[in-house]
Amino acid sequence: MKNIIKSISLLFVLALTVSCDSNSSDDLGYAAQEESGWVQLMQDSPSEISRFAEEGGVIELDVNIQVPTTSSDLTINYALQSVSGADPSTLFSNSGSVIAPAGKTSYAGPDNGTGFEYSYLAMISLDLADLEGTTLTEPIVFDVVLTGTSSNQIKAGLEGETFKVSQRIVIIPVASLVGTYSVTEPQISIAAIFGESYQVELAYDASSPLVLSATNSVGFDTYFYSNTTMTVGNGGAVLADDAADVGAIVALLDAFAYDATDVVFGNDLDGNTTITLGTNSGVLFYNAIDYSIILTKM
Q1: What residues have CB less than 8 Å from 255, skipping those under 6 apart?
Q2: Is 129 exposed, middle or buried (0-12, 13-18, 19+ CB in 10 A)?
Q3: Domain co-membership, 140 together with 236
């Protein structure tokens, strides 16, 4: 009797094992679930990436592949969508796709809540060397947009979610910044105190392509100290002058100090070029007054 019971129990275990094996593989779609998910750009990337055409280098965008595994190479497709200025698709040699080798994903990474470092990030690269020989008279503004992948199980983003699939890029030709600018001070009004009116001129020298000289226009009171320069790079700008001081002397009044990245190159409502310095970090150093300036091309 004991042997009969043992035999029946063994048959039951074998039957259960076969049943579980058949239902836990392709019949349940487990492999497909492992290879489904989405791709996205990094959530903590800035809303806008600015570079200067003359500084060269490569703009690199990490692509997060939120898929547990892939059994074959994954092609990630993207588009360069023009916003203003020259069409980036005619300037850059990008193919519009990158390939992530089989098995390379970002699944073990912070965006998945595991706390582990990313095992792999695909990379979209924009080489500013592609712009050499092209005359640019205004900034190029465009979006790099993920559009899909070679797998119908792996989408760009996820429906109903806000995963980042678009990155704004602004490429500024330094030479296009040349001109006469009016100066305004949003946080305090020096003009109201001293009755001064300010204009400055930015000039460009191709032998020093990342350095603009800032001089005071004839017929207007002095704003910048002597030999002021604006050195640009990596989306920011630094003012310097002949004074051995913190920051740069403005309105011959105080030393203007600000974070070099706290600079915005844009346009006003009339389409005039604007350069805004120190909105978030600017101070008049000795008077400890919050301060910023806006240069508006005339």
Answers
A1: 243, 245, 246, 247, 248, 249, 284, 285, 286
A2: exposed
A3: no
The token duo for 175 is: 């030479």
Q: Are residues 158 and 181 in the same domain?
A: no
pLDDT (tens digit per residue) in 60-117: 999 999 999 899 999 999 999 999 999 999 999 999 999 999 999 988 666 656 556 6
Asked if the structure places residue 281 within a domain, the reply is yes
Q: What share of the chain is helix, strand, coil (3-state, %, to 5)?
A: 15, 40, 45
Top-confidence residue, 184 or 193: 184
Q: Are 171 and 52 in contact (CB under 8 A)?
A: yes
Q: Are residues 131 and 181 in the same domain?
A: no
Rounded-to-integer distance, Cα 159 and Cα 291, Å: 44
d(CA 250, CA 284): 9
CATH number for the domain harbouring residue 99: 2.60.40.2030
Q: What are phi and psi of 91, to 5 degrees?
A: -110, -40
Task: Let me know: does 282 contact 166? Beta carbons within 8 Å.
Answer: no
What is the value of pTM for the model shown? 0.79
> By three-state DSSP, how is residue 76 classified?
strand
Q: Which residues of 224-251 are buried (b: 16+ CB within 10 A; e: fewer)?
A: bbeebbbebbebbbbbbbeeebebbbbb
Radius of gyration of the chain (CA): 29
Range of the domain at 151: 34-172
- Domain total of the chain: 2
Is the per-residue pLDDT at 135 higher than 60?
yes
